[in-house]
Design brief:
By secondary structure, the chain is an alpha/beta fold. Helices cover 31% and strands 21% of the residues.
Amino acid sequence: MGRIFFIRQESYDQAAINEAVRRAFDHFGGVSSFIGKGERVLLKVNLVSGHEVNRRVTTDPAIVRAVAGLVLETGATPFIADSPGIDGFKSAAEKAGFMDIARELGIECKELTDPVDLPAREGADFRRIQVSRYVLEADKVISLPKLKTHGQMYLTMGVKNLFGCIPGRLKAGWHYNVGLNREKFASLLLDIYLGVRPCFTILDGVTGMHGDGPTSGDPYDFGIIGACVDALTMDFHLCRMLGGRLEDYPLYMAAKRRGLPQCELDDSDVEGDITASHVFPGVKLPKTRSMRLLPHLPFIDRMMTSRPVHIPELCIGCGRCAAVCAAGALRHENKHLYFDYGKCIRCYCCHEMCPVKAIKFKESGLLRLVNFFTR
């Protein structure tokens, strides 16, 4: 049995999604192999911020409905949960279609609040991480990520989805604490993933996002649903299938530094409708920082990292960018943004939270040169 199972799925037709999700669980022995009667099961969706479903920013509700239905069949109690970065939870969940599912199925859709300490695992880099108590109180966690590119972390898939277990504005504090070092941030993601340990992951890759993800990119029809027990292995295989270099993927570099066995990829890990050698054509991957050649020092990182820049003609003056900036590097006045690049930690939260794509990336001359010679 392969460790990762990919299913070809070209649309979000609910009947087809139901069949695909059941097939995904059946490949690993069925949903009852993971979920027991009477258990309380957290369905960790991707609800980064409030976007309409057709923007393809969040987990599609058809996927969530299918998984919730299977969990209910076992006699367990699912609930849908996440913690958006800045938006109010209820309004964001309404836009994403999650509240409709909760009402339809008679289950909860709740914000991940009430931070408590995540027990530190052996080998963890971060000894004190706070996640929502609802994560630790759940009997099981099923992760339902979206397949997208990510300006700061290159890609956001199974492992990155668990960052949402950190409640609300505590995320901004972590962005500030890890600063410009993306591998350090990736190590934080590893500690969260290995601490939460979702029992199963169903990846929504029917229509994902490439380019300036995770919210301002363009939809891309990958046409797949991914299923696995070990999301780290799946994320590494998908990096290559998207045409990316593992050396450019901060999560891989952090895992390699720890000597994690998932870094040794085996094509036999992948089964289903596509093989490990499959490459999706024309995927636009972020080039916001070179991960190669130079060490992690603050002044080097600033030179080697793209800057966020403002597109005034697109701006609606909502102020979300300045509100989310953990470093206090943004000032917003009359639809004009003023960046203090000396303070900017290149977390790109301003770009991520902009609802109208009014913040873009600008490569430094040195970064363009490095990317040219190392591509």
